[in-house]
Amino acid sequence: MTTKLQRRKIALVAAGAALALGLPLTSGFSAAGAPTPSPTDGPTQILRVDTPTKAARNKVAALGLDIAGTVGIESIDVIVETAADRTTLTRAGFSSRVVVQDVDAAERDRVKADKAYAAARPGGSTLPSGRTAYRTLADYGTEMAALAASYPTQARILTLNHQSLEGRSVEGIEISNGVTATDDGKPTYLLLGVHHAREWPSAELVTEFAYDLLQNAATPRIQSILDNVRVVIVPVVNPDGFQVSRGGAYELKRKNCRIADGQIPAAGACALRANKALGVDPNRNYGALWAGPGASPFTTDETYFGAGPFSEPETQNVRELISSRQVVTMISNHTYSALVLRQPGWLGAAVTPDDALMTSLGDQMAAQMGYQSIYGYELYSTSGTTDDWSYSATAGLGFTFEHGTQGFHPQFSTGVVAPYRGGTKKVPGGGVREAFLIAAESSANAARHSTIQGTAPAGVTLRIRKSFETEPWNWRLHFTDTLDSTLVVPASGSWTWHVNPSTRPAVVGAGGTEFWTLTCENPAGTVLEMHPVTVARGAVATENLTC
């Protein structure tokens, strides 16, 4: 009879064989996943595991346990629910100490503390919104709609293309001066929250930034940003998982609500205790390097990468949003580790062609929050993440922020209020607010993206487009990505378009070039003129079209 560890090794070999052959991975691999807790396992705990080297951190990440976060990069916090989880760590040769004795009890204490904090501040907190407690899913929709109604020339609601598995709309808010002139050539700065359901501050912080921009739109600094950039904020990428976590059915829920690959879950199935370990990790489901290091083939593992690249509505939404705009900066927000992560995300990857720029910008942002700025792989190797794909596909700068050090959703006062503005002993800089503003100003800086300009008849639609093959970890599973965005020529006939470089980073690294295909279309969509345009980061290309 095989042991659980032997079965897991067998399944890993089988999964590797399937990937090598280009075969889909399905829920058939779930048997080797996480064991079901029993009454004799004791309370769920968080252990701090000593990981002084990158090799040790990658080894922990490969054990299939639930990684909570880090405090510094020489230890990793791991959630343990069963005796088997503890045995896995011990047998792997790791030492650890308990940092949260009882996760459920700690959550009850957090709720009490938040209620006391709110009760003591009837006039609200120092946040732009004045909030004193974590929002519910409904709150996000209500508040974004209210902001758009209050600032109609500067904010509008975006509804992303795909509903969630449980039928929820996924919404964001777009903020810019003259927001309704959507095809005006401004670059886009994208902020994302709650890929992982339990990471509530990631949605809170970006929502507060939306309030901040609109309330202070007349100040010179923010007016300049909104004159030159479109800020798009999607607070909750994963609404189904967030509802399970925030609604209390399973507070530690991380993934989405995909119970079985390729199937829509039955109503209420995601919240059932029997299904709590199931789901796809949205931040391992993006296409670039999909199913590579730091992602799991097991459906019950917290880093399960899904049935295929972009198999989930959450990642399809982000892919289509980015592919239809010129997103020059993207920040995917998470908790917790107090880190600003940049490419590359896995240890064997080459340094990016934009390393100096990304390091400088990452360092500036991290300093404001009191965080470390590091390569993604210095924490542990990952693949199929948001910035793995966004940067490799578009050359737009991509970062992951891991906010805080005190848990997925610590007390509201310490997890949201204090870090937002900074100015404290732990956050001596300008806080998350200042980091977000630095990224916004970087997005407006034409030296950090590319520009195409020229003349064309007023009112015609210009389009830039390119298609290419994106490779998952197994190159045989490559697929076509298409970037396609438009600009409407203003009445003057002169136009300026802030875009990403025409050549993807991997091609730059190999010494090659790529081009955008620029077309001019009439109102019926007929192409009247076509030009190939090659433009590097910081460069300006001029194209005059007669159409």
Please tell me about this protein's structure.
The chain is 30% helix and 21% strand. It is of the alpha/beta class and 547 residues long. The protein has 3 domains: 4-104, Alpha-Beta Plaits, CATH 3.30.70; 122-448, Zn peptidases (Aminopeptidase), CATH 3.40.630.10; 450-542, Immunoglobulin-like. An 8-stranded mixed β-sheet has the order 5-6-8-7-9-12-10-11, sandwiched between helices. Strands 2-3-1-4 form a 4-stranded antiparallel β-sheet, with helices on one face. The model is unreliable at 1-32 (pLDDT under 50).
Percentage of residues in strands: 15-25%
Quick check: average pLDDT? 93
CATH H-level superfamily title of the largest domain: Zn peptidases
- What's the number of structural domains? 3
**Oligomeric status of the shown chains?**
single chain
Class of secondary structure makeup: alpha/beta
What is the total tally of β strands?
A: 19
- What strand line-up does the widest sheet have? 5-6-8-7-9-12-10-11
- Rg over CA atoms, rounded to whole Å, is 23 Å
Regarding CATH, which class of the largest domain?
A: Alpha Beta
The CATH architecture name of the largest domain reads: 3-Layer(aba) Sandwich
Which residue ranges are poorly predicted, with pLDDT under 50 across at least 5 consecutive positions?
1-32
